[in-house]
Specification:
This protein has 342 residues and is of the alpha/beta class. It is built from eleven helices and 16 strands. Strands 3, 5, 6, 7, 8, 15 and 16 form a seven-stranded mixed beta sheet that branches. Strands 11-10-9-12-13-14 form a six-stranded parallel beta sheet, sandwiched between helices. Strands 2-1-4 form a three-stranded antiparallel beta sheet. Helix 3 crosses helix 5 and helix 3 crosses helix 10. Bound molecules: NADP nicotinamide-adenine-dinucleotide phosphate (NAP). The site of NADP nicotinamide-adenine-dinucleotide phosphate (NAP) has 33 residues, from helix 1, helix 3 and helix 5. NADP nicotinamide-adenine-dinucleotide phosphate (NAP) binds next to helix 1, helix 3 and helix 5. One of its GO terms (molecular function) is zinc ion binding. InterPro entries: ADH-like_C (IPR013149), ADH-like_N (IPR013154), ADH_Zn_typ-1 (IPR014182), Chloroplast_QOR (IPR052733), ER (IPR020843), GroES-like_sf (IPR011032), NAD(P)-bd_dom_sf (IPR036291).
Length: 342
C-alpha cells in the first residue's frame, strides 16, 4: 500500500490573506534512493525565498508545490549510496529548491548538503540556522575569501553589512566578528539597532537615511568589504561610493534595474553574487562543501562561539501557521529567524 503524508502547498500566486494561498493536502510519502536521506521533519525555518517563490509563480501549477527548504529533522531511511548519515541521526539543512520542500511531514534531501544538527541547542534554535549560515559563510569565506582563523590579518579590514538584523545579517555579523573583522551593520529601528549591537556590530548606520554621510561622520571614507543583504537597487550607488579602491562587494539580493558596474570601474573594485542554492541547483561537485560548512557551524554553535539567531517560534507545521509566518516575512521587517516546530 502506498503510504501518505501531510504537507502544505500552493498552486496559484494568491495574497497571503487568502485562505487558499497555502493549503493543507495529502501526498505520497517519498522513498530514499541514491544519495538521498528521508527526513522526518521536526522543525522548519521560514525564509524570504519561500514567499518569493509563492508570489512569483504565474498561472496554476498542475500539482500543489511544497515550499520551505530550511529544516531540522531525524533521518528515517537512507538511499544505497549514502555514507555520511544513518537512520536515527538528527540533521539540519537548507535543501534544494528544485525539489519538494520541508513544509511537510517528510522530505528527501541529498546527504551532501546536510549537516549534523547541533546537540546543545533546542530543536527550534538549531532549525533557525542552516540557510542563513550557509549564505553568510559562502559570502564571507568563499566570495570575499576571508579566513575564519586569520583574525590578526582580518582585523585590519572593515566590513559593512547592509541589513544587519535580518536572518542572514544576524549570523553574518557573528561570523565576521569571529573572523576578527571590524563590522559596521545597518539597521533602522530601535529594536533592530539593539539586536545588531547585541550580536557584536561595532557601529550601526541607518539604512533609511543616506549612508555616505553617516559613514564619513564615523570617521571613515571607505570600507574594505560590503555585504549587501537588502535592496541592491536602492543601495548600489552608495555601495559604489563607499567601497575602497580594490575593495569587494557581495550581494545576495537581485537587482530589478540594470546595475551600473561602471560606478566601481575606476576603483577596480570587485562585485560578486552569492546564491546559496547555486551548488545544489547545478549539482556542482562542490555540493559537499555545504555538508562541511554545516558541520563546522554545528560545532561552533555547540561550543558557544556562535549563537542561534532564533527570534520567534510558532507551533504546528500546517497551512494556517505557515500563512501567519509568510505574512510576517512579507513585512520585510523581520529580526533574526522565525521557526515552526512540527
Ligand atoms: N542569495 C542567497 O543565497 C540568499 C539567501 C538568503 C536570503 N536571500 C535574500 O536576501 C534578503 C535578506 O534575507 P534575510 O533572510 O536576511 O531577510 P529578512 O530577515 O527578511 O530581512 C529583514 C530585515 O531587512 C531590513 N531591511 C528592510 N528594508 C531594508 C533596506 N531597504 N535596506 C536595508 N535593510 C532593509 C529590515 O530592517 P529594518 O526593519 O530595521 O528596516 C529587517 O530587519 C532577502 O531578499 C532574501 O530573499 C538571498
Amino acid at each position: 500500500m502506498v503510504e501518505k503524508m501531510k504537507a502544505v502547498g500552493f498552486q496559484t500566486a494568491l495574497p497571503i490573506s487568502d485562505p487558499k494561498s497555502l493549503f493543507d493536502f495529502e501526498t505520497t510519502k517519498p522513498q530514499a534512493t541514491g544519495h538521498d536521506l528521508l527526513i522526518k521533519i521536526q522543525a522548519i525555518s521560514v525564509n524570504p525565498i519561500d514567499t518569493a517563490i509563492r508570489r512569483s509563480t504565474s498561472g496554476k501549477l498542475r500539482e500543489p508545490k511544497i515550499l520551505g527548504w530550511d529544516a531540522l529533522g531525524m533521518v528515517e531511511a537512507v538511499g544505497r549510496q549514502v555514507s555520511l548519515f544513518k537512520p536515527g541521526d538528527q540533521v539540519f539543512y537548507a535543501g534544494d529548491v528544485r525539489r519538494a520542500g520541508s513544509n511537510a511531514e517528510y522530505q528527501l534531501v541529498d546527504e551532501r548538503i546536510v549537516g549534523p544538527a547541533p546537540q546543545k541547542l533546542t530543536i527550534a534554535q538549531a532549525a533557525a540556522m542552516p540557510l542563513t549560515a550557509l549564505t553568510a559563510w559562502e559570502s564571507l569565506f568563499e566570495k570575499l575569501q576571508l579566513n575564519l582563523t586569520a583574525s590578526s590579518k582580518n582585523a585590519r579590514q572593515t566590513l559593512l553589512i547592509i541589513n544587519g538584523a535580518g536572518g542572514v545579517g544576524s549570523i553574518a555579523i557573528q561570523l565576521a566578528k569571529l573572523a576578527g573583522l571590524r563590522v559596521i551593520a545597518t539597521a533602522s529601528r530601535p529594536a533592530t539597532i539593539a539586536w545588531v549591537k547585541d550580536l557584536g556590530a561595532d557601529a550601526v548606520l541607518n539604512h533609511r537615511q543616506p549612508l555616505i554621510p553617516q559613514l564619513r561622520k564615523s570617521g571613515a571614507q571607505y570600507v574594505d568589504l560590503i555585504l549587501g543583504l537588502n535592496d541592491l537597487d536602492g543601495h548600489w550607488a552608495e555601495m559604489a561610493e563607499m567601497i575602497k579602491p580594490n575593495g569587494h562587494i557581495v550581494s545576495i539580493t537581485a537587482n530589478h534595474q540594470p546595475l551600473d558596474l561602471s560606478l566601481i570601474k575606476a576603483k577596480s573594485a570587485t562585485f560578486s553574487w552569492e546564491w546559496m542554492y547555486t551548488k545544489s541547483y547545478y549539482q556542482l561537485p562542490t555540493m559537499i562543501t555545504q555538508h562541511q560548512i554545516l558541520e563546522k557551524v554545528s560545532q561552533l554553535l555547540d561550543e558557544g562561539a556562535l549563537r542561534s539567531t532564533l527570534r520567534e517560534t510558532m507551533q504546528q507545521i500546517n497551512a494556517a501557521t505557515l500563512r501567519k509566518a509568510h505574512q510576517q516575512i512579507e513585512t520585510n521587517h523581520s529580526i533574526g529567524k522565525l521557526v515552526i516546530t512540527a
